[in-house]
Write a structure and sequence with these properties.
12% helix; 26% strand; single chain; elongated; five-stranded antiparallel beta sheet; alpha/beta; 13-stranded mixed beta sheet
Length: 518
Amino acid sequence: MLNLLFFVENTETDKVRGIMINHMDDREENICLDSESFLKMKNLQILIISDVIFTGNHVNYLSNELRLLDWDYCPLLSFPSNFNPKKLAVLRMHNRPRTLMEEIWQIFFGMPWSGMSPLGMILEIMQSLKFNKSEFFGLRKIRLLSRFPNLVDLNMSDCRNLVEVEIGFLKKLVNLDLGACWKLEKLEIAEEMKSLKSLDLSYTAIKNLSSSSIGYLINLEQLTLRNCDELTKVPTDNIFPTDSVQDSSLQDKQYDPHPLMVYLNECSNLVEIAEFPREIYGLDASGCHALRTVSRLSNILEGKESKMIPWMDLCGCDELCRNLAADVGKMKKNLPDDSLVTALLSLFLSCRQSEFQVVFPGSEFPEWFTCRTDFERFLYPRDVDKKGFQAYNFCIGFPQDFKWENKGLAFCSQTKRDRFGVSYFRFHAIYINGVCIMKESKLMKNRQWWFSCEHVWLYYVPFHTIIRRLGESGLPPPSICLVKLEFEYQTPEDHMGFVKQSRLREGSCGVYVVNARG
């Protein structure tokens, strides 16, 4: 390897095979590159520069014999137009001008020879690619990703100047993360991507999700759009249209698309969540303060739909809940009281055929829950597991001629605020006659709600599901239900030394038998 002095004195030789400069002596001056630099080094195979050695932003030539190009603080704004390093195996360029990043992509991935180089062959089998945010900060457009045909995980999060991405045809891609690409307004997906299961577009400038792009993601399981302030309606232009499935083998009865989780929390300008043509397993709309309409809930109220989304978080959706409660009040005249909580519970519990849970704003616990108790907050370490859960027991009896059809149990909890304006709630499990009927799912594992205002948690399970789960443990349909409800509840005061050993009344929980009358 040759040092800086040799480079200065021997730039016009074709005998040089490698140059490595780790640092520059304080007494040495930077070398100013010009168009003729490297011109005579036709056989240069290794170039390693690890310091701020050069100034100047342009050269006319780099050797096409390069196998290894490792150049920190590269001052070049672009590569020479005739730079075609077919034998390149290692390309590393840290701390270079941001404008060079797109040039690297265009030069290497845009050339037909790149797939035949050693580095290109490595890319052919690469399964995971993550963009370092400090290195790719200035990248504005990403194209030609089809050079990575076996890619499974693609993480471009935090590329904050990225404006446009063309995914190409990545038939094996499972996870695509574009979170915190603040300027990203457009996502181009040109062909059907059957393998993609997770798409994260949170903290982007995405304004719409058209069927021309997202409609190709027929097996998507998780769509994350947190803090997308430009979104006003989801889905737009019929996201996930059923006619986007072109393959006839996917149109028969055996085709069962995965339920979709949609995260829209903190989308400050989101006004409407329209109906999804795909089955939705979960919807997180927490913090969507401007939200006015959720089509599924409106359809339930109007009798057009009878199935709740299995999991919903409507924390902070005060305007939506006020609108729904007002509409319920106009349509249902025999409610136990005229409170917002009762109106919303009446709406949700009109769907009695499948289990679901929902969290929504509410300042009171319904008095018509005959099996109820107040619960307390007390000191215990936050990181404990089962030892820290609070457990409450209820007993419900049924007559011998009780009809189980179209009925179920509703479990409800209402939490108060502490003086800091927040509280913490985490559901754990429900037991009936010693059998675990419902336990926090993988979806909810390690998830908790920090409520900025008073909220209600509701879980409903139909009796046919309870009977089936008891039967799996060898138990008959119950004449008596001995119910045990486990959850965790605390506030920031618990961890800030303000709580005395005395217990404080903080909320209520209870169980209610839901019948055809609601």
